Amino acid sequence: MQQNPRDIIVAVLTIIGYEDDKEAYADEFIKNGEKQAIADAIKALPERKQEEIKQQLFWTHVQEKTKAIIAANVTPEQYRETLQKDVQTAFQGLIEEIIPTLGVVIQ
């Protein structure tokens, strides 16, 4: 059974003794991954298309309109693949950052 990413992050934070709000950290971690995935998916488009999207987004301040612009230019598959890569990279960075502190906890 595959756990949801939020639960995995909360579990890791519990294991390492993170004392602040684990759920809030996990939510922010995932939200940042989603934002990065959108940015990276757009960066993968041809430069002309990127500029077109930037112009459309510049004048848009409504979240639903922003989502529609992105959905019209990035396929769900592109987004999922980019999201998976970006969150995996960020999670790996988190683990690499805490590994030095684990030795102190274990000893």
Short key terms for the protein model shown above:
107 residues; mainly alpha; 5 helices
User: Biggest sheet, open or closed, and with what strands and sense?
Assistant: none
Q: Identify low-pLDDT runs.
A: none
Helix content: over 70%
How far is the N terminus from the C terminus?
Answer: 33 Å
- Computed structural class: mainly alpha
The radius of gyration is 17 Å
Taken from the alpha-carbon principal axes, the silhouette is elongated
Succession of helices and strands? HHHHH
Q: Can you give the mean pLDDT?
A: 87
Counted by DSSP, the helix tally is 5
Strand content: under 5%
Q: What is the count of distinct domains? A: 1
Please count the beta strands (DSSP E, at least 2 residues each).
0
How would you concisely characterize the structure shown here?
By secondary structure, the protein is mainly α. The chain has helices at residues 5-15, 22-43, 47-58, 63-73, 76-106. The radius of gyration is 17 Å and the shape is elongated.
Topology (SSEs and partners):
Blueprint: H1 5-15, H2 22-43, H3 47-58, H4 63-73, H5 76-106
Helix pairs in contact: 1-2, 2-5, 3-4
Walk me through the structure.
The chain is an all-alpha fold and 107 residues long. It has one domain. 81% of the residues lie in helices and 0% in strands. Helix 1 (5-15) packs across helix 2 (22-43), helix 2 (22-43) packs across helix 5 (76-106) and helix 3 packs antiparallel against helix 4.
